[in-house]
């Protein structure tokens, strides 16, 4: 329900054609003839929710490739960028002036020189240290660059809290990337402290890319006040398969906390399992209660979080929630093979969510986020493989042992909890 005048123009620019499709689909999915078996009824409820709160339609003609970690992700990204024929749209919270950042920059420059439309949105806080030379190199080559909500006095600016945490690439309107990986060497495991970086990204071919394109176009208008129109941005797709995908967005420009509501509903609809991977475990009261209620109901609720801190306050704020979750039967694990940054939610074998939203206050209520909700058993099983692999590299928190943790740890947790609303 939160509104600020600065975001009005952004909300009002939402593409009406996709909203109209969402309204039509909402009427269709409410028909009992569309979904017949029990699992489909659950899908219908989830699809209806996102149709209502995000106004983004469900797409059917899609093929998803799960990309595990930075090496696989950047390999696919670079390959598809080099194959681009018409346009490249790239939107990231963090872009770094390092080895992988310059590799991507060089490809973008080359494609721009070949005559392609190349546009880049970077968050002005997340990419604070990107540097003028990096941006000028892009601009001189003809790449159109937009900084999202520039902040000139961070200590005094309210806009410091409203960051574009999205990670989106759209290539020729046909191929899209979405997930947890920003552009930086640490995502390839090159940070000496964090070490191996465990993450999850998606490569999508098909009609779900229309929704990613629409998000980029909307964010581009907000950043540059330039309208992008034309069928070239929404080309026809060949047949890829029948994976149901719905893209959900949230942020201070949306009426509802759509991704948080999606998580809440998925957890409540679960009949067998809720498996979550998140770098930060600071859920609001409603999601926390949903997790505990599910576990108390006999649902297999498991959560994997890091054992290392990339953000010290968030680390201890996460730890402050563990004892209560364990007491309800939620199984919580700490990942010990480096740092885990995946944002994945698996419910039974019927639905999964992968995207940019962490399980914390900032992602649920403050930042601009984007998640893919996927209603496909094969994708869920592929993500399940990664989750099971991560469990092998994790240690479970034991309730009786965790209650005996040191006073110092409890004090740090208390401080983290107090400061968590500011995260």
Characterise this structure.
This protein has 423 residues and is an alpha/beta fold. The chain has two domains: 62-241, Endonuclease, Chain A (2-Layer Sandwich), CATH 3.30.870.10; 258-422, Endonuclease, Chain A. It is built from 15 helices and 18 strands. Strands 1-10-17-16-15-11-12-13-18 form a nine-stranded mixed sheet, with helices on both faces. The protein has a seven-stranded mixed sheet with strand order 2-9-7-6-3-4-5, sandwiched between helices. α2 (16-29) packs antiparallel against α3 (38-53) and α4 (69-83) runs parallel beside α5 (99-113). The chain is globular.
Topology:
Layout: H1 8-12, H2 16-29, H3 38-53, E1 58-59, E2 62-68, H4 69-83, E3 87-92, H5 99-113, E4 117-123, H6 132-140, E5 144-148, E6 167-171, E7 175-179, E8 197-198, E9 200-206, H7 208-224, E10 244-250, H8 258-269, E11 273-277, H9 285-296, E12 300-306, H10 312-319, H11 322-327, E13 331-335, E14 339-340, E15 344-347, E16 351-355, H12 361-366, E17 369-375, H13 377-392, E18 394-396, H14 399-402, H15 407-419
Helix pairs in contact: 2-3, 3-8, 4-5, 8-9, 10-15
């Amino acid at each position: 329900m939160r509104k600020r005048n600065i975001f009005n123009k952004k909300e009002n620019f939402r593409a009406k054609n996709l909203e109209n499709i969402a309204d039509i689909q909402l009427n269709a999915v409410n028909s009992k003839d569309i979904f017949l078996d029990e699992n489909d009824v659950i899908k219908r409820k989830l699809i209806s929710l996102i149709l209502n709160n995000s106004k983004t339609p469900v797409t059917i003609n899609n093929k998803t490739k799960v990309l595990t970690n930075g090496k696989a992700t950047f390999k696919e990204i670079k390959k598809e960028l080099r194959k681009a024929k018409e346009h490249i749209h790239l939107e990231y919270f963090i872009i770094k002036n390092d080895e992988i950042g310059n590799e991507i920059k060089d490809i973008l420059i080359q494609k721009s020189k070949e005559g392609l439309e190349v546009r880049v949105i970077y968050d002005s806080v997340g990419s604070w240290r990107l540097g003028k030379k990096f941006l000028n190199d892009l601009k001189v080559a003809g790449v159109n660059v937009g900084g999202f909500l520039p902040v000139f006095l961070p200590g005094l600016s309210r806009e410091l809290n409203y960051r574009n945490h999205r990670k989106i690439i759209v290539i020729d309107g046909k191929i899209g990337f979405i997930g947890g990986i920003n552009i930086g060497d640490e995502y390839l495991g090159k940070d000496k402290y964090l070490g191996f970086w465990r993450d999850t990204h998606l490569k999508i071919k098909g009609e779900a890319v229309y929704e990613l394109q629409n998000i980029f176009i909307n964010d581009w208008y907000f950043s540059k006040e330039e309208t992008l129109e034309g069928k070239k941005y929404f080309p026809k797709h060949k047949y890829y398969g029948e994976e149901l995908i719905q893209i959900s967005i949230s942020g201070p420009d949306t009426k509802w906390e759509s991704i948080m509501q999606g998580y809440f509903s998925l957890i409540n609809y679960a009949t067998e399992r809720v498996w979550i991977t998140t770098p930060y475990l600071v859920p609001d009261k409603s999601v926390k209660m949903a997790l505990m209620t599910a576990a108390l109901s006999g649902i297999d609720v498991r959560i994997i979080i890091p054992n290392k801190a990339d953000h010290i306050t968030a680390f201890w704020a996460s730890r402050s929630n563990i004892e209560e979750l364990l007491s309800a039967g939620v199984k919580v694990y700490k990942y010990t093979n480096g740092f885990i940054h995946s944002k994945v939610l698996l419910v039974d074998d019927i639905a999964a969510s992968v995207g940019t939203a962490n399980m914390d206050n900032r992602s649920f209520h403050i930042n601009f986020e984007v998640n893919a909700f996927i209603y496909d058993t094969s994708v869920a099983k592929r993500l399940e493989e990664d989750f099971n692999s991560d469990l092998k590299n994790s240690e479970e928190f034991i309730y009786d042992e965790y209650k005996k943790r040191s006073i110092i740890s409890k004090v740090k947790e208390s401080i983290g909890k107090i400061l968590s609303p500011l995260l």
